[in-house]
Amino acid sequence: MTHPGSAPRADGPEPQDTRRDDPSPARPVLAITGLDVHYGLRRRRRKVLHDVTLSVAPGETVGIVGETGSGKSTLARAVLGLVRASAGTVTVAGEDVTGHSEAKWRRLRRRGTVQYVFQDPLRSLDPDLTVADSLAEPLLLRGVPRGEALARIRPLLERVRLPGELLDRLPGEISGGQRQRVAVARALVTEPELVILDEPVSALDSANRVQVLQILKELRTTGVAIVLISHDLGSVAGIADRIAVLYRGELVETGTARDVIRRPRHPYTRLLVSSAPTLHTAPADRAERAALRAALTT
Ligand SMILES: Nc1ncnc2c1ncn2[C@@H]1O[C@H](COP(=O)(O)OP(=O)(O)OP(=O)(O)O)[C@@H](O)[C@H]1O
Hints:
The chain is of the alpha/beta class. It has a single domain, classed as Rossmann fold (3-Layer(aba) Sandwich). It is built from 11 helices and 10 strands. It has helices at residues 72-79, 102-111, 121-124, 131-141, 146-159, 176-188, 206-219, 233-237, 257-262, 267-275, 286-297; strands at 30-39, 46-56, 61-65, 87-92, 95-96, 114-117, 194-198, 225-230, 242-247, 250-256. Strands 6-7-8-3-9-10 form a 6-stranded mixed β-sheet, with helices on both faces. The protein has a 4-stranded antiparallel β-sheet with strand order 2-1-4-5, with helices on one face. Helix 4 (131-141) packs across helix 5 (146-159), helix 4 runs parallel beside helix 6 (176-188) and helix 5 (146-159) crosses helix 6. The two termini are 28 Å apart. It binds adenosine-5'-triphosphate. Residues 39-40, 48, 66, 68-74, 231 line the site of adenosine-5'-triphosphate.
């Protein structure tokens, strides 16, 4: 499906926010259909996502796994309106956002239905705001009185296992693992339907990595849907309900985490599974891995 009109449309009235009283539990939080994304112009134009179709149900955790340059971040950026689709559709919380103007995208992002956590928490946090102010800011912007905002961030702090004494510190005065947990808490403040985390643990040491992954796992009980992007299948395997494997801009395999790990079909997925030491699957020997690599280059 091509959108010659992937150019911005005129800004219409703000669509009603019906997400809280939509009676259909089956409505996906995110539905991507036949998505193509290009970068560059004219002779430099290059397709980085091709015919990507993926849907995320309410409360579901989906892992998107792929090697560097496979298009993972581009996919996240397309869902947030930071890059434009050249074909296909993106529907967020029931709203087709494919042809949204910049202004409509900004309003959608500000509404907080979808939140994004970067690999580097310093990109999510203002270095001049204390942890308390960082967490309260999205609520203050929505007109929530300061006292109420501060009361509402307390349980979030507990959810990400941070002590209250950190509230008065600046991001530069806490550890990298603590910063990432603040970034996760901040993403939850607006009670989003979907949180996209782009390599949230790859900059952390192994103790912090385990802790943040455990926190993400526990978030499943809150009903928020999670898209967890990683180059490391091992990181997402214990959390994701489903795993989607992105290879050179195409989703080559999507299935339940169990199926993808136990019965990988695509050679790239087989290579990923056989190279992940923490998955407790029978590791492929060198010859098998070489054969899989050869299959990928043909
Ligand atoms: N703004 C841009 N302009 C042109 N090309 C880009 C741009 N951003 C990314 N690319 C290219 O698009 C491809 C996909 O990049 P993307 O960042 O989505 O991959 P990724 O899977 O997230 O990689 P990584 O794991 O290294 O972050 C890469 O070849 C990259 O060089």
